[in-house]
Amino acid sequence: MEQRNTSLPLIALTLLTGIALGWFLNDLIRRPAAPLALAPASPPAVAAPTASISVAPTTAVSIEPTTAVSVAPPALPSVATPAPAVMPSPLTSEPLPTATPPLRIVGYAGHRVAAGETLETIADRYGSTVALIETYNRLDAPPRIGRELVVPLLAPTDAGDALLVRRGGAERPWIALTLDAGAGAAPTPRILAALRERGITITFFLTGRWMRANPDLVRQMVADGHELANHTVNHPDLTTLDDNTIRRELNETEAILHEIAPGATTRPFFRPPYGAYNERVLRAALAEGYLPIYWTLDSLDSVGEPKTPEFLVERVTGKLSQNDLRGAIILAHCGSEATADALPEILDRFAVMGFEVRKLSDVLK
Predict the structure, then answer these.
(1) Hey, which of 76, 207, 279, 284 has its CA 20 to 30 A from 193?
(2) pTM here?
(3) pLDDT digits over 4-34, tens only?
């Protein structure tokens, strides 16, 4: 009997302990589950407090609290291992073309275009190319019959024709006004100003000596868009010189221009000083890549008695007929004061007559 009375408090104590444990577990379950958010998707199973109370006391005591409330360390979120980057396979293509080596010009030949000839047939004859002939002669259209050309050679061949140009094509009302510069330069700024005011560009034949003495005027000519041509270094009578000296006169003039105005050139035109020439001089110049240019009309501004501006206006605009003025090459000089004075009226009168004053390369087309 004493033993049964002792067991009753023990049972009551056990029951109270179970209830307290149930409250404790319920409190844990109701707390914010921040740590548990990182746990696997399936939450841990925890016995509800009522379930603990409904069972026999011995069963409730047998549950280990550590098992019911054990929480695994927060599991790091699973991050998918990135797949290896797939590099695109190189595109299959044709091998890159190698740079085309520049063509090597070994010489030049003179040629006058005949009826039925084309640039293709001329290039085939001399072992050249159409592009080389076009570029060197400043062509932008098929050349007319009778057009004189300098043909760049890619292999040694015949020297072609000994050429001397006296006029351009008569198909258009164009006149080539060409000014030689070998002596004085004082009137040249006024000449350039008159041309600039009218938007006219022409061809100047310059000596190397004149260019060295007047580099600023040379650069102004280039800036204004004028065409420059070769008149030798020292203005000698080329018929008295040997071939090597002729070549040196031409090549040194080109070199001087390169020093003063890089990128400019005197090619492909050349005028013999004093108009003195023979076949040997013509061929020597052509072999260096220069087309010899003479004139249709000399203004006479550098020969004989000094000329007045009125004389020059009448001679230049009235000496030749309207038909003969078409394609005419007119000679005057940069050192002539009378030419500088007469030039504005000459240009204006040609305009009234329906003529355009152009570069030599234009008029030769």
Answers:
(1) 207
(2) 0.73
(3) 455 565 655 666 666 656 555 555 555 544 4
